[in-house]
Amino acid sequence: MNKTIDLPVSQRVKGQLSHEKFLNAMHEETTMANQDRNEADRLTAKNSVEEYIYEIRGKLCEELEDFMQEEDRSKFSLELEDAENWLYEDGEYAEKAEYSQKLTQLKLKGEAVKKRKFEFNERPGAINQFGQCLQLAQKAVDSYKAGDDKFSHLDQAEVEKVQKAIGEKQEWFSRMCADIQKLEKTSDPPVLASQFLQEKESFWHMASNILNKPKPKVEPPPPAPADTTATKEESMDTPSENTSDANAEAKPDEAKVNGDKIPDMDVD
Predict the structure, then answer these.
(1) Which of 5, 112, 113, 239 is most buried per CB count within 10 Å?
(2) Hey, is 92 helix, strand or coil?
(3) Where are the alpha helices (H) located in 61-147, listed in sequence order?
(4) Measuring CA to CA, which residue among 48, 71, 66 is closest to residue 184?
(5) CA gyration radius for the chain?
């Protein structure tokens, strides 16, 4: 004999947290994750200051020595030493914002001297590129004025526009080069290498569109129509020649009358 019994079913899992405890655990976990992340960011910022101190201090008496005056270099070396001491004393447990501020202060001088060295190395190439660009453009304009067939298709007004631009850019180029000639390595340059390249690019974009304009293509003349008159005359002459030949062949028979020869007649 079988007996059916309805068993009660509960949705509660053994050991399950209440809703309130679950929210508290989630909040606690999020808080700890944020603390870990903040601590990692703090240590990264601290290490950035330390690394920069070692990097720039090692270069001050080597590759950057010529680009900073001795007095300024000595003062900056002391600032770097003070910053290093601060890292291991009062700044051992500083906040991320303090490290970021300290790094910014050190970079004001450190990056300035690094930039002077960078410009010193990059400037000659940029100047050379711009100078060659102006020379090439002037050479093309001179060829146009001399009647070179290669440039004969160019519009005179546009070539004069290029000539005017060459004069303006050459004046700026010469003035900047003169200032740079007087520049000390320890001074910030009046013009950057990137500015020379920008001036070159803007000028050449305009000039090349004019000076490199291709010649218009000249279409070849259409072929002459075929002379059909001669062909027609030739086709008309052919039957006439055949007729003449036929008549020539028939002439010997004209001396006969009804098939008999005409008798010779004696004249007394």
Answers:
(1) 113
(2) coil
(3) 70-88, 96-145
(4) 66
(5) 51
Q: Which residues 6+ apart lie within 8 Å of 154 measured at CB? A: 144, 210, 211, 213
pLDDT in tens, 32-71: 888 889 899 999 999 999 999 999 999 998 999 999 999 9
Q: Strand, helix or coil at 261?
A: strand
Q: Does CATH number 1.20.1270.10 belong to domain 21-115?
A: yes
**Residue 183 neighbours by CB distance under 10 Å:** 16
What does the buried/exposed string (b/e) look like for 105-140 if buried means 16 or more CB atoms within 10 Å of the residue's CB?
A: ebeebbeebbebbebbeebeebbeebbebbeebbeb
Global pTM reads 0.69
| Segments making up each domain of the chain, as ranges | 21-115, 121-211
pLDDT tens readout for residues 68-104: 999 999 999 999 999 999 999 999 999 999 999 999 9
CB of 196 closer than 8 Å to CB of 126? yes
